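It is worth pausing here to work through a concrete case rather than discussing structure prediction in the abstract. The textbook approach is simple: state the sequence, then state the predicted structure, then interpret. We follow exactly that order.
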Amino acid sequence: MQQQQQQKQEQEERATQKKQILKQLLDNDALDRLSRISLVNKEKADNLENFIIGKVQKGEITSKVNDSQFLKYVDEMTASGAGRVGAIKIQRRCDDSDDDLDLEDD
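Step two, the predicted structure:
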C-alpha cells in the first residue's frame, strides 16, 4: 500500500516538473493550445509534451516556442507517426439506390 502511494507521489512530481519545463519552453499562446489539445485528447497532448521535451534535450529547440512553431511541431510529430494514437476514418456510402424511397406523387 505504501509503495503504491510512493509511486503515485513520484508520478505527480514528474508531472509537475514536466509542466514547469513546458511553461518555460512555450509562450502563452502555445501553452493555451496545448491545454486545449489536452482537454480533447490527453494522450496526444502527452505525446506532444514528450516530443517537444525530446527536441530540447537533443538541442533542436533553444528558445521559447511560439504558437506557429508549436503548430509546426504538431505537424512534424503527426507526420512522423510519433503522436499517432488512433485515427478515425469516416466512410460514406456511395449507394445512390433509392429503391426504398418513393418520391414521386402519383
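Step three, interpretation. The chain has one domain: 2-80. The chain has a mean pLDDT of 83.
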